[in-house]
């Protein structure tokens, strides 16, 4: 197992301010208490942020088996990967490795808490990773951040831009799952382009038959970066034509391997976790014209003939919506926060999706199984 060292900017030394001059609702700088405003650093609040880095870093060293800092299941009793490999003092707290893999023995491990895309004033893009350190069963603490890819200079000020920056926590990006305009959706009267649907129109669902569309959202975003559409080539997952969706759009997977690993032959997997560079690829464009559909319940509908999800109104999805869209949705579903929406199927994290095996082989199994169930 390799030993990896990353250079952290201490979270407590970051300056995070809203560019509109207003303070955070809690009155606490989210860099010092990232859980106060919902998610780390309040990336999901409807405001732009300016983040100024400190001028010094501290080295964090840990064991790693796959050269990728992943999230760790918070309920795990044993952690064998991403164990702290050397003592570190950050934010005034000392963390030391103890050689154990068992949390009841106080093992100390590091984890990817979240990732966010930030921009310099000149438009240069940076990918910032927030890191937690957990000792035993203590609450994880976001101790600092480092950068994947291009490195900003120490002391730089970077910007989170609503509608352009993307945020990902524990393998789940907060950008709302969407269909690219032009995608054909199955209805009782035949296939219709998603942009031609109207509230009240019926669409075919896998579990509940024809169901009315209750809300339609639409947004145009930069289609060249992290929000670029992903393309499933025709036939890859039982789709009759090329299917274009946003990276976080969940796809229904039918797989015998899923049954073996997760107790169900049907699971949901984010499109980005299925990319193989051949059958599932990025399809960037200057502007991505996205639409999202919401029904009374989270459902699986047929897009280009393949079962994919409708909008799931969980807390992160609601916060990721633009303020006007969220207000419109709340006017239609006044008690949406209390409804307790359920996903149509269990969804997999990035790490769980990897457990399904080689993506190209699994994708072809999806296609075969989806075709059998069509």
From TrEMBL:
A Pfam family it matches: Hint_2
Gene3D superfamilies, per database record: Hedgehog/Intein (Hint) domain
GO biological process, one term: intein-mediated protein splicing
Record domain Hedgehog/Intein (Hint): where: 177-314
Designated name of the protein: Hedgehog/Intein (Hint) domain-containing protein
Species annotation: Fuscovulum blasticum DSM 2131
Lineage: Bacteria, Pseudomonadati, Pseudomonadota, Alphaproteobacteria, Rhodobacterales
